[in-house]
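Lecture notes, structural biology module. Today: joint structure prediction for complexes of four components.
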Amino acid sequence: MNEDQIQALNSIARTRLIEAGQVIMSDQEPATFFANIISGTVKLIKNTPDGRQQIVGLLFAPDFLGRAFSRNNPYFAEAATDVEICMFPNAAFERLVESNPDLQHRLFERTLDELDAARDWMLLLGRKTAEEKVASFLLLIARRQLLSGCTHDGLGQADGSFALPLTRADMADYLGLTIETVSRQITRLKLSGIVAMNSNRVMAVPDMARLAAAAGQTAAAQG
Amino acid sequence: MNEDQIQALNSIARTRLIEAGQVIMSDQEPATFFANIISGTVKLIKNTPDGRQQIVGLLFAPDFLGRAFSRNNPYFAEAATDVEICMFPNAAFERLVESNPDLQHRLFERTLDELDAARDWMLLLGRKTAEEKVASFLLLIARRQLLSGCTHDGLGQADGSFALPLTRADMADYLGLTIETVSRQITRLKLSGIVAMNSNRVMAVPDMARLAAAAGQTAAAQG
DNA sequence: CGACATGTTGAACCTCATCAACCGACGTGG
DNA sequence: CCACGTCGGTTGATGAGGTTCAACATGTCG
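The predicted structure, tokenised, for the full assembly:
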């Protein structure tokens, strides 16, 4: 984004801190704002009427949260970790986007990326085994945390280890598994030496290629 | 779309007929065109290195097919039925979109809809039972075929029955199941009277609410 | 310390995948 | 014309991968 755009955005922005576990947007009420994630991890959640739950997306900094043109939002957004977001009132943001084709273009590309990510995940949910699912998730986080700078949470970094932003329960909801299965598969990956865990939430990956193989991908390929 | 837009589109368009089973776009080669589906059903497919397959999207008329701004296309597009499409060379189409914010806006909204659909399907893949999956698919098709006009294929219509655009194998790949499981679940739905089948590919739904219930949705709700 | 949340491990069960046989429709060629 | 292969679909028997239920461990906070 150029200077003008950033200026314009800042002039209507308001930052906010949200604790882990808090609901940011409900699927019941229409969204009133658009936001940019500064730090932390946000879960997008869908529920069945009888209470089953599926995480349909994870958002990290600097992802966007919210619906561009205010139809109502079909999922819950919940903070997985403590989250810092930068909020824009919906109406003001939309005006800005309307008058700024470049910004709209950026939003469009971000949305296409999200669509790709969602479809990758459909392959995982529909066709991968429990071990591949868990390995895929750990690989996703490992790449994210190690490549895109530090973790911002004071854990890991130096020795190449990093923090998992989700609890076992959240992982299960993201992978279409149960808590127990996630736990067992992590144990298996530890035993086989593919990952090492300093604690329940801090992990290290000695050999990314092995993890990628366990995730059912040929070394180089996709996310 | 307004008259000018349609004019502009038509001037660069070329229609084409594609037989069921033919590949329209490969994930290997970069996409060279953008297209509009006139009739028929297109599958978007993802594969694992070892040959497992997942359908990550279905496209019907009048959906768009292709990537707006020519990054390479990460999936296969294959004709599920005979398909009629209207093709635009990528470069020309992009120029048109660039100069036409309204059209871009439309594309954006379509993409958001696809994202919602993908995430709905993630819930299905991750958390629904085989019976719910099959019922959900049949419900999706039933609503689509019965609401949005006729079926264009000469089957069904009059008596409220309609054709299934997918084989059992395709349904399995769409639902994250095996052919056998799909077949058995359809049999179960027939036995319980929730659906009736005139032949393997032609179906009728006496009571949509019952089908919706079998799909694990409360009567009114989502797709 | 006790209460509660998060995570691990074990045993039993069940859903769905796998393997296999079979059916009907269709097209081809002897 | 009918044998033959193929393709899409159905049905059955069996078994494995994951769920479920339950107990236990660990960590944190009052």
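Point to remember: The first strand of chain B starts at residue 14 and ends at 18.
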